[in-house]
Amino acid sequence: MNKDYRWTVLFLCSLVGWFFWQEINHFLSPVHLSLYLGGLLITFGILRLPLYSGLIHSVLIATWLDAASPTYPFGTGILAFALLHLGIYTLRRKISHDTSAWMILTALLVNFLLFLFWTVYHYPRQIDPSGYLWRSLVDLVISQIATTIVAVWFFSLQNALLNLCHMPLDEESPLSP
Amino acid sequence: MPRKSLFQRRPLLILGIAFLVWLLLPGIIKTFFRTSIIELQAPSRQAASVVRDVQDYWALRSAGRNTLLRELSDLSRQNSYYQLRSQRIALLEEEIKRWEQLYNLPSHPEYHFEIARVVQRDSTTWWQEMTIRKGRQHGIRKGAPVVFAGGVVGRVREVHLATATVELLSSPGLRLSARISGEARPLGFQGGENRPFHPPGGRLDFIPADYQLPEGTEPLVVTTGLGGVFPEGLVIGRLTSLEESEETLFQAGRVRLDQRLHQIREVAVMIALEESTQASERE
Amino acid sequence: MRLFALYRKSQSRLKIFPVFIAGMLIVMIGGLGWRQLLHEQFYAEREEIQHLRRVLVPAPRGNIFDREGRLLVGNQPRVSAIVYLNELRPQFRRQYIDLVREYQEENIPSQGHNLQVLARATVMQRYMDKVNQVLGRQDTIDARTVERHFQQERLIPFPLVEDLHPREYARLLEQLPSDSPIQLFTTSLRHYPHGPLASHSLGYTGNLNEIPPEGAPGETLATFHIPGTTGRSGLERAFDEHLQGQSGAMIWLVDPSGFQFDLVEHSPPVPGNDLHLTLDARLQKIAEQAIGDRRGAVIALSPQNGGILALASTPGYDLNDFVPRLSSEASTRIEEREAWLHRGIQGLYPPGSTFKMITAMAALRDGIIEPESTSFCHGFHTVGNRRFPCHNRQGHGEVDLVEAIRVSCNVFFYEHGLATGVDRIASESRRLRLDQPTGLEIPHESRRMIIPDREWKRQRLGESWFPGDTANLSIGQGFIRLTPLQMAAYTAAFASDQSFIQPHIIARPESLRAVSEDSSRALQLEPSHREALLQGMFEAVETGTARFARLDDHPVAGKTGTAQVRRRGETLHMAWFIGFAPVENPEIAIAVLVEGMEARDSFAGGATAAPIAREVLEAFFNPEEASDILEVSVSP
């Protein structure tokens, strides 16, 4: 485990993903829409890396996102991401996980759960609850659509980068602790 | 089968311990950690902004010469108009100063405007803010009011070395003292309406129960200058409707903010002159 | 099984045990069932009482408007910076732990409770410091106040700073984060845009710590009150119930420590109902200005329906001084100026010559005199061996009724009053209902008016009635005491040819308006007799004693009076004017009284009271005149 540095490659790849995600949001802001793709960034790590390697990746992504978020204490996202990582990780052994379809479904589920968590977390401070829920719903729908569209490419990119860095995924053992 | 380590046998326990350690970690370490990450993120945001500028540049390069000439002549016309206005304003300011001295009135605080490019707009469901390409090294201070041609943009929330984040007027975290144009009473404005495909909005509280919206008009909502952060008379938005709140003493009103709020490319950060001279003295 | 075998083998006497245990079980199950099924409601209620608390929030009181819809009494918000103790509990706990550690480290002995009190006060002071920092104040928290609030009113917000100036709350609003535990809390306070205008009639309110929980849900629950206000005088008191509105109630499910856990029910307060008065604020202001610094009353009303147009009593007081509470200095100031008395409805004065109209009416009604009857005035009239003077010592010569009213000749009324007799004069006064309060809606109208007669004097003073008493009564002097409101009501009634007209000040809702069973009775005076009285009053204004009340455009009928009262060894002059206009189809009736406070106040009806009446009448007939008199300056 100590020699597994695949999370570094995944993290760099996720930063590229984050960069584009932020750019899209920049251009969506005039129409008051935004994407949330946090789930997409961590899904590959959950499903294809060993527990701790993947967890480090998820925690790093969460830390990166938390730093720029103004509304909650630094660390809240880390906890949420880590718990979700563990939750999904324990489930992954019970079901087939190496098909693309399953990976997309997982990404959608993770993204949905994270989105739900933040929506509930921010609800009490809203002055226009109905508007907030409507906006959340629209954002969730477009986020899920975007995740569905981008996921296959993004996972392939992560896979390709790992291969490029001579850190291929081990098909047999590393998936289970 | 290889022997499992503690990390592998008790993942939840380890997470719990990590969480506890995080909780007990002194705030200063967390702040340092967080600030470092933001400073790490800054170059990528700036790079994106520069790329956008380059895109704009090439878009202009590809425009026809006639279009550019037309734009240029429009601009020079506007320029001369604003020069005239600027002279007039200078005269009026002199006049105001003279009256203030005559009546021993406390003079209005003067501001220096620091113009900054918008690096990134971050208008999500949960917060509305933007990152600007000016920071501590340009004299930007936390809490400084930020304005644009359409009025108030928001308030500086965080200042970093070369960037700063501005909490937008449409964010539920931003409250300021406002008044309806033509009325004296200070009211409370709070942002927070961000419906998709609609202009951003906010709520005006503490409107006296006997206030009636003049029919067919949407009065301007402006800052009062009483709150100590924003100077007086900056446009916030327009009061579009009133709704009775449960308190019965007051009504609440909906304010429509400027449609351009989430499209801004350039803003001006207001730095009180007193503050900036004090800062330079300290330096 | 062995146990049962043992049991089977045992003596039959032991069989009583299972029967006993079975019986006990039946009783237990029965009891349980009885409690669970039959008494379920009772226990559910008990549980509710133990776990639910009610917070009553006062409703804003209704507004009071004048006849033109101008606001006379309204509400203004009172903004306070508050914190809810509930939200600070984790901080209280943390502070307590820190304090315990600190005390232990320094080996200082201390009781846990004291440290808890200290911890709470420290946390509150921290928030107070935040407010101080924004507002530039240096307020401190009193630990005992925090503790009392914590123990007794923990569901109610704790006020850090009360009564914030708009500038202050603007600063807090802008400089405190929107999710700060320090919140701005508003309650309603009475606001009087015109300050002292009609102060006695409108009345003031006082603090009420226990709001009557009328109609609010959760009657059986332990209740906390956010203090409200109640009417203490004037219309505020008389129509307190109407103006009060219905308190809002919040029913909280509380945790074992008695703190808010969940809001179970919330009924918002229903604002009080408005009152619309017949009062004309502009006329009221003009009346008050016309009296100026003098003590007195001006009452104007409509002879057509009895609606009060102005009801001024001076000196008054600024009603805004009572908000939020009257300071002792302000109270002393009011006391020293004797301003508490509503002179219009509570002040009792001899009506002086204005009463001559009633003497004349009594004499005419009983045929003692005819309009043509005359008297010769030498400047005095002798009754027994006592001379009763006329105000014109040289005498008016021969005067008839019209002339006697015009010049206000005492001798004419001595002579014919004596012929009429006290019984008829008193009976005429009672016919005009001058022996009882008018029944105006404003509380505490005086009931101690005096229409003296033989019986009254015998009972009150144990003396017989003398002709001299009748002579005095004939010109409104002596024992007789009436309120300015009574004189105004009588004038309005006479103007509309009635014996009584019910004065009222409430325009809407009509159900609250004062009504009298015999509110409208014909005066039943022969037309020629009434004509003569009217002629006398008209000429009094045109060329007689009341000429300072004359208007150029509208004929006015009026009568002046100057009564003398002995008070503290001094003879004080009370100047009266009663009148109405126009003479035909009158639209306004008025009574003016100016009270002399010292012997050197040489007040007289013609010179003092009539000009005041003139100002009010002129303003009434020229509505555009001084229309900006009520402009209120609004400052933030």
Q: Distance between the terminal alpha carbons of chain B, to the nearest Å?
A: 65 Å
Our Rg estimate of chain C from Cα atoms comes to 36 Å
Unreliable residue runs of chain B: none
Question: Strand percentage of chain C, roughly?
Answer: 15-25%
Q: How is the main sheet of chain B built?
A: 6 strands, antiparallel, barrel
The helix/strand class of chain C is alpha+beta
Structural description of this entry:
The complex is a heterotrimer of chains A (177), B (283) and C (636). Chain A is mainly α and 177 residues long. Chain A is built from six helices and no strands. The longest helix of chain A has 36 residues. The termini of chain A are close together. Chain B folds into three domains: 51 residues; 45 residues; 173 residues, Thrombin, subunit H, CATH 2.40.10.340. In chain B, 36% of the residues lie in helices and 30% in strands. A six-stranded antiparallel β-barrel of chain B has the order 1-2-5-4-3-12. The relative contact order of chain B is 0.12. The model of chain B has no long low-confidence stretch (mean pLDDT 85). The model of chain C has no long low-confidence stretch (mean pLDDT 87). Chain C is elongated and about 125 Å long. Chain C is 38% helix and 21% strand. Chain C has two domains: 225 residues, Penicillin-binding protein 2a (Domain 2) (Alpha-Beta Complex); 327 residues, 3-Layer(aba) Sandwich (Beta-lactamase), CATH 3.40.710.10. Chain C has 636 residues and is α+β, with helices and mostly antiparallel strands.
Which labels suit this protein?
heterotrimer; A: 177 residues; mainly alpha; Arp2/3 complex 21 kDa subunit ARPC3; disordered C terminus; C: 636 residues; alpha+beta; Penicillin-binding protein 2a (Domain 2); Beta-lactamase; 2 domains; 6-stranded mixed beta sheet; 5-stranded antiparallel beta sheet; 22 helices; 38% helix
